[in-house]
Structure formats: structure tokens, C-alpha cells
Amino acid sequence: MKIGLITIGAELLNGTRTDTNASWIGKSVISVGGSIHWHMTVNDTNESIVNSLNQVPEDIDIILCTGGLGPTHDDITPTVLYTYFNDNPLFDDKYWSLLTSRFKSRGIDIPESNKNQAMKPEKGKIIPNSIGSARGLHFKNNNYQIFAMPGVPSEMKLMMNDYILPIIKKISKIENHVKLIRTTGIMESALYEIIKPYFRSKDLSIAFLPSYTGVDLRISSHTNNILVSFLDVIIPLIDKYYYAQDEIELEDVLGAAIINKNKTISTAESCTGGLISDRLTNTPNSSSYFKGGIVAYSNLVKINLLNVKKETLNKNGAVSKEVALEMAEGVRKHLNVDIGLSTTGIAGPGGGSKEKPTGLVYIGLSTTSYNKVYKFNFTKNRKINKLMTSQAALNILRNYLKI
């Protein structure tokens, strides 16, 4: 099924806000037999919205629209749609009473401006919103159906999952099986070369989705057996890099592995500034294995809290494999855990040299029986380097736990 997408808002056009809704919608419709074939982002003016509706391609079956359903002066989407689809807005006393009660329960007097959110179409349909005040709208004409949703991501996703996706699935009559395979530590081109020989079915679609933390594979097929057979073949081939399916994060996989191995861990971070600790504690039950972290940004902290030797720092510098190892050993012993994980590097954008360029990173892993340091050369972008280093460190730990 061919789907069009209209995203409304000046903030999307001027870069004030990133349009994450479009990305989520594009991925979500695939599993129910739909795909985005046309997309426009327009200003929140009558003329802009009408122009976009007039430009909908003839082969589009459904239009999904986000934004402009709020209570302020620039939220004009409902007004435009009522006029465009020849419908009449009616005041919904029952919903207004419900909204008033919701606001009152939070100790707030509902503003009069919210009354425009209590309107309902005479011929069209309302899309319920149990977590916000702006209900969605569902209209149709001779060419397509349109579903208008709020721009607030949580409210949009609720309407998509509960109301819109089931309708698309029913109309499309196409069963599409989709799996997201998550990898890290391998380049897109190298991953492609590994799995390329196994693209044997025409009923198999593969999209490579690279990012700074890894490469996701979105694999889909109308036949579940074809999808399963393909996964059975390629996953063992990419085992070193594959860590999860669907939207599961690396730290969640890692947390389960640490618990399974009955281990405890602490971190000693310099260039990552506590990012690894932050990611580890994003996972439920992390308190059972993560005992704490030390952000040893200065040499003084490395010496006083991690027992890094002055001689090691003077001889090798703070960014070195020797210091990374002493940091990992130091935090393991100081916090009495099974595993110590450390990072030290030149995050950038400056500070590098010919011998130690910007982006140079050392990651140390220490246990009572295993000590190793890993060297990486990343980018000149500070934030990207921190993210890539944290991902590499978590993946090093994941692979160690598989031993």
C-alpha cells in the first residue's frame, strides 16, 4: 500500500526541531504492508497545508499527517481539514467536560483556548487520545483517507498503534514480516560482503542502516519461512558483531549477560566522561551488577583514586595502553568488583599530535585472570568520539562475557 506523509510545522522547516516522527512512521508502516511513497513538510499556514493536499499523487491510498492540533493560534490543521473535506465541526460537550476534569485533577483551570480541541467532525471520525488533549481526525474523499495526528511523538505513536496501523493492515491485505538485526564493530561495506552471497530470494528486502554506533539491517519478506531461513544462515556468520534484534539496545543485552554470568562491574572513564556508566544504568536491575564509576578526567584523580602510577603517566602519557590498563585494574580493586572497564583518549577536536592523533582511544578491561587493552582511532568530533568509545567499550565487554 502506498502511503503519503505530511508533517506540519515551521519548527520542522527552520531546524528548530528534528522530525523524528517521520522516521518512526516510515518504519512502523512496513510491518503492516505499507510504505511511504511521498512526503512533504509544510508550514503551519492555510495555504501551505491546502497546497500539500492538492499535490497528493493519484496513486496514494492513505495520507498520514502530523502537527497543528494544539490549542494555540498556529494550530490550524483541524480548521483546514474541516474545510477541505467539506465537514462541519461540532462542539463535543462530553469531551469538554472530560478535559475540564483532567485539568482540574492536576490543579489547573482549563484555558478557553483548549475549546478548539473539543470539536468533532460531523461526517468524519475522531481518533482517541488517552494521554493528551488533542484528538486525531479521520477523513476520506474519493481519492484517499487521511489521518491527522498531534506532533507530540508519544501521542502520535499511540494513535498509530491503536487506531491507524490496524486499518492499514486490514486494507493492504499484505503480510509483511520484518526483523531489525543490530550489529556493532563492523563497517557497512564489510557487513555487506559477508551476507551478499545469501541474497537468493526475490521475496527478500534488505536495508542497511548505518550509524556511529553500528549498522542495523532491516530485513523483510512476505514469507516468514524465507525470512527465518535467511536469518538462520547469516546470524552465525556475523556472530562477533550481532548483538540483538528489533529495538533492543546494546546495554540491555549486556546487562542480561552480566547477570547471567553473575558478575559485577565498575568503570573508570576519562574521555567518555561517565557516558558508559550512564548507559549501563539505563538498564533495569543494573544495581545488581554495576557498583559505581569514577570519572578520572585529571591525572590527579587517576593517581589518587585509581592508583595509576606517576611513573606510568610521565613515561607514557595519560592517553596510552599502560594507563588504560592501570585505570581498569585500579577501579576493579578499589570498588571490589569482578570486572574493571576503562577509557582514555583524545576526544578532540584539538589536542592531538602526529604520534597521538585526535580520536585516539584506549579501552582497558581487567579481571583477576584477564587483562587487555584495545586501541581505536575514531573521528575529530568530540561528541561522536564519546559515543563511539562507549559503544566499543560495551561491545568489548559483551564479547568477553561470551568467552
Features:
403 residues; elongated; alpha/beta; five-stranded mixed sheet; Alpha-Beta Plaits
Provide a quick synopsis of the model.
With 403 residues, the protein is α/β, with parallel strands linked by helices. It has 14 helices and 17 strands.
The CATH topology of the largest domain comes to Molybdenum Cofactor Biosythetic Enzyme, Chain A
Mean pLDDT: 94
CATH superfamily assignment of the largest domain?
A: MoaB/Mog-like domain
Helix content: 25-40%
Low-confidence stretches: none
Number of DSSP strand runs: 17
Termini gap: 46 Å
Shape: elongated
Describe this structure in words.
This protein has 403 residues and is of the alpha/beta class. It has three domains: 2-172, MoaB/Mog-like domain (Molybdenum Cofactor Biosythetic Enzyme, Chain A), CATH 3.40.980.10; 177-245, Alpha-Beta Plaits, CATH 3.30.70.2860; 250-401, Maf protein (Alpha-Beta Complex). Helices cover 38% and strands 24% of the residues. The protein has 14 helices and 17 strands. It has helices at 10-13, 20-28, 46-54, 77-84, 93-105, 153-172, 188-195, 224-237, 250-261, 275-280, 299-306, 310-316, 321-334, 382-401; strands at 2-8, 35-42, 62-66, 89-91, 119-121, 125-127, 136-140, 145-149, 177-183, 205-211, 214-221, 242-245, 265-269, 290-295, 339-345, 360-366, 371-377. The strands form four sheets. The protein has a six-stranded mixed beta sheet with strand order 2-1-3-8-7-6, sandwiched between helices. A five-stranded mixed beta sheet has the order 14-13-15-16-17, with helices on both faces. Strands 10-11-9-12 form a four-stranded antiparallel beta sheet, covered by helices on one side. α10 links the parallel β13 and β14.
